[in-house]
Specification:
Blueprint: E1 2-6, H1 16-34, E2 43-49, E3 62-66, H2 71-82, E4 87-90, E5 102-105, H3 110-113, H4 120-136, E6 139-142, H5 145-155, E7 162-164, H6 170-173, H7 181-184, E8 192-196, H8 205-212, E9 221-225, E10 244-248, H9 252-261, E11 264-267, H10 276-283, E12 288-291, H11 296-300, E13 305-307, H12 312-324, H13 326-340, H14 345-357
Parallel strand pairs: 1-2, 1-4, 2-3, 4-5, 5-6, 6-7, 8-9, 8-11, 9-10, 11-12, 12-13
Helix pairs in contact: 1-14, 8-12, 10-13
């Protein structure tokens, strides 16, 4: 049996869904190597547009560049031709709209739930595409019970027909750590609270900045990892305190060091299909203050402190609890490590593979 993987993600920048695809494919590659996936019965191929792709080392899965188009045109017009009659696995929401012999991983339905955060063209195209995926795909997979409910609600797809498979964390567990990064950036002078910024209003970074005004002490720094320029918040009338350090883009190894060195990680997002950053933080022993919305309680379980993302003072109160109680912080570290052990890219890939034959 040939299994083709929609490899358009290899032509894109690595954000959440591209990270998912890369880690799942690497896990598939290992499962073939160990014999869990019988290579005499199954052949895996990644098909990508015939353009520059990011470096991706695999031992047992071949990457083939096909077609003349790129982007959505390649995905909708050319990709179906090259996988005609064979199984196609789409790992990043999108796929050929009318193909039946395919499994599609839909991570969330944010274009329906938070349509104001997307351009008119983007949201309407994705609404149409996701609706087609839900209607024609052999199977829909998603990454949380929350997303299963959202897919059923917005795409009119029966919950019983949607399989939930959680994401994993080996990429942060076994990935390299930039051991001197904290010292080189001067972040070892004071304890710091870590946040991941984003231009997407859904990430709700401005609530963290507002929360800082409620804290009793400023004997710590707030470190922002991500590409957002803090000046973008000036339009909301938010003044960044002097103890905010903006790092800009950070690599995976630098992010791992930031998680490990942080006093805590704050993630007050309004809407997440899964929420990989909190899982990454827990995996390396960083205590978390997490939004109580969407899928995030599924990820955090009983191992985190929860906040109302609409109330900056509530975020501040949870930070204050950690600042005032070292035992609580240590307890969250232990519980976080236990909670993180429940997630695995290997298990994710095994369940996805089993879905092919269900």
């Amino acid at each position: 049996m040939k299994v083709y993987i929609n490899g358009r993600f290899l032509t894109q920048s690595v954000t959440g869904v591209q990270r998912y695809a890369r880690e799942v494919v690497k896990a598939f590659d290992k499962l073939i190597g160990t014999g869990y996936i019988d290579s005499t019965k199954y052949s895996f191929y990644i098909l990508t547009p015939n353009k520059s792709i990011s470096e991706f080392q695999l031992n047992n899965i071949k990457i083939k560049q096909v077609g003349r188009f790129e982007g959505h045109l390649w995905e909708q017009i050319e990709l179906p031709f090259y996988v005609k009659g064979e199984m196609l696995l789409n790992l990043c929401n999108a796929g050929p709209g009318l193909k039946k012999q395919q499994i599609t991983v839909i991570h969330d339905t944010a274009v329906f739930a938070n349509s104001r955060n997307f351009s008119f063209i983007f949201r309407n195209w994705y609404k149409a595409m996701l609706s087609a995926q839900a209607k024609f795909s052999k199977k829909i997979v998603t990454v949380s019970e929350f997303s299963r409910g959202e897919i059923s609600k917005y795409l009119k797809h029966g919950k019983e027909k949607i399989k939930v498979i959680y994401e994993g964390n080996e990429h942060i567990t076994f990935g390299e750590e930039a051991t001197n990064y904290i010292e080189n950036k001067g972040l070892d002078k004071k304890p710091y609270i870590l946040a991941v910024s984003s231009l997407n209003p859904n990430k709700n970074f401005s609530a963290i900045v507002k929360a800082m005004t409620y804290l009793e002490s400023n004997d710590f720094n707030i470190v922002i990892a991500g590409g957002t320029d803090p000046k973008v918040f000036s339009q909301d009338g938010i003044d960044l305190p002097d103890n905010v350090i903006h790092l800009g883009y950070v690599s995976d190894s630098e992010l791992k060091a930031l998680y490990r060195g942080a006093f805590c990680f704050v993630y007050p997002s309004f809407y997440e299909g899964f929420g990989l950053p909190p899982l990454e933080a827990m995996t390396v022993g960083c205590p978390i203050i997490l939004s109580n919305r969407a899928s995030l309680p599924e990820v955090g379980g009983k191992a985190v402190l929860y906040c109302d993302p609409d109330k900056p003072k509530d975020i501040a109160d949870e930070i204050q609890k950690l600042l005032s109680d070292r035992n609580l912080r240590n307890d969250l570290v232990e519980k976080g490590l236990e909670q993180a052990s429940k997630f695995s890219w290997e298990n994710c890939a095994k369940e996805l593979f089993n879905s092919i034959n269900d």
